[in-house]
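Progress against Task 2.4 (sequence-to-structure conversion) is shown through the following example record, which the project officer requested during the mid-term review.
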Amino acid sequence: MIFDKKYKILENRFISGITYLLRFEAPDLRSSPSGSFVMIRSSEDNLYDPMMRRAFAIADIQGDDILVFYDVYGKGTETLTKKKPGDFISVLGPLGKNFFPEHFNDYLLIGGGVGFAGLSLFMKRLKEKGKSFKAIYGVRRKDQLSMLDWIIENNFKDDVVIYTEDGSYGQEGLVTRDLKQIISERKKTALMVCGPKGMMKAVLDVGKEMNVPTFLSLESKMACGFGICIGCVVKDIKTDSYVRVCYEGPVFDGYRIKF
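C-alpha cells generated for the chain above:
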C-alpha cells in the first residue's frame, strides 16, 4: 500500500560534505521493501516553488523511524534543510515495483557517494537473514563518507570496504580497483549497485566481463514517482522499449539497460 501523508520530523541535520540525514516517524512505512523510495515535498508554504517532490531512497528503518540521506544540490533539497524536529513533511511512499533479488547465495553490494543509501537497508536485511555478502563504498574524499557513522553504529565495519579516490580514508582508488579480484574470490556472487551513472556503468562493464549477475538501482529525476508522467524512462535493450525507473524499477537487470 502507498501512503500520502504528513509525518513528524525527528531529526534533520548536516552530516558531512553536502549530505544531510533526515529522520521522520512513519509507522505506515516500517514494512517498506529494501530498495524502495519515497517522494518528499520540501515546502508546504509554497506548492509551486519548488513545485515537485524529490525522490529519496529509504536508507534504514528503525522501529517506526525512517532514515533518509540526501545531498543538497538545488532549491528543493536546500529548502528541505530548513525543516526542524517537530515539523511535519508530506511523504509519498513506499514507491517502486522491482527491488533487489533475494535468491542468490552471495552478494557484493557496491555504492558510490550517497548512492550507498540505496543499498544500506538491503544490506541490513541480508545480515538479519544470515546471507553471505560484502559491501564496497566509494567516494572522492573522506568528508563525503556521510554513511560512515551509520556503518559503524550498525556493526557493519567488518563487512564494508571503503575506497576514496584521493586516499584520504580506506583504500585509495575507485570502487572498481580490486573488483575483479574480489569477484573471483567469491563463488557465485551477484552485484547490487547504486550510485553515479559513470560508476554504475564501470561496475556493470566489470560484471559483464566476469560474467556475473549485475543489478542496478537507478537514480533519476522524477515528477510523480509512480509511473504517470513518463519522465524517468530508460531503454530496455531486450524488449527495445522504454521502462520507467519509478515504476518498473528502481532496480533493473544491468544487462538489459542501455546507458
